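Support reply, case 0932

Customer input (verbatim):
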Amino acid sequence: MARYTHNLMQTDASALQWGIIGAGLLPQDKRMKECLDPQDNLYTLVERSGDQVNATVIGSVTQVIYAGEDRHPLLVALDDPQIRIVSLTVTENGYYISKATNSLDADQPIIAHDIAHPEDPKTAIGIIVAGYSRRRKNGLAAFTSLSCDNIQHNGNVLRCAVLSLAQRIDPALAEWIDKHATFPNTMVDRITPVTQQHHIDYLAHNLGVVDRWPVFSEAFTQWVIEDKFAQGRPSWEDVGAQFVGDVAPYELMKLRLLNASHLAIAGLGQLCGYTLIDETMRDERIARYMRALMQRETGATLQPVPGVDLVAYQDTLIARFANPVIQDTVQRVNTDAPLATLVDSARDLLTLGASIDLLALGIAAWLRRVRGEDEQGRPIEIRHPFAPTLRERALQGGSDPRPLLSLNILFGSLGKKAGFVTPVAEWLDSLYRKGAHKTLDEAATRLAF
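Our regenerated output:
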């Protein structure tokens, strides 16, 4: 968003009214604010593809708020009538939607806290609800809530979470939000690794720019948005964004082909001992596995996408993942990529009576990884809201996936169906008994990829 808004500001003076206030809720976001404050919130975006490097100083961010310890400054910012759009990227896990009920999981302790103490919310959803509540009390218009997360129908999911929480706090507030706020669906496609010290060093040594918090990304970018805004929006279409009536075909394409593939290969790659995604793709077995996964299984769940050649898009993804200059880590992908991309694909295929052997291997790798240690007993960091429970159940079940698959919030009813459990169990048993490399060898032979 910052890149699109910055570009628009270069050509359209009216876009200057759309400055961005960044906000961070996680402990690691504190350092981002500490780095950007002395730079007047300017940062360098470095876009790389092969030998081509494009660096741009982004000037659309006007302020950064760290709300990890105190939510009050962020809530005050949301009181400003000039705030018309609130966007968020909190990953699938930040919505607390149960797979079993497709609604807010009010039994989660952090959600229970936000219901009991709506003026002091802990979750991003709680903050949005509190923001709407304060604006309603002050007679201000509702803002647009814009999800940029990798979730199918992300705007609908956000709306469901917000209205469910608001309903439990104050039914009249929920009715007001439903009437006045909007929640557009979006699809964002760009690989952006977490900023690391080597990025800072590269920028200083190669381009002579001292920046405490640069952002490095691939050159490819796509942003598809449902045109449904409560109080207007920037003319992002003038700088490459696509506004469409129905985002669904685009978001499903990206989730099933990019995100599902990303998570499947990242889990296998980490178990094989790889650190980077491009390093993982240099393992020919994994590269072939990814192509087979898209061609035979995840791609089979898609309908035609307007203006997109799906075969060419798959080829592009393989090239993007193999791009050595991006240096995206398997840890980052395993942390951020939504498990639902694999689970939902499997559910759709089983409904069609089709095989899920390739998906089952990727899901088994995810289950093996959340044990929190690799095949040599070295620790794997699991960043997930349910990390302690995941590790406990992984240790309890070992090669038996059922303790993990019984987590309804992640797997819903699918975790109890033999057509899903059996192939996942088979691959998980192989990963435990034979290890990732031998399991890949066996899978490549048996599944002919």
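We compared this against your earlier run and they match. Two observations from our side: The two ends are 38 Å apart (CA to CA). The chain is about 50% helix and 10% strand. Please reopen the case if you see a mismatch on your end.
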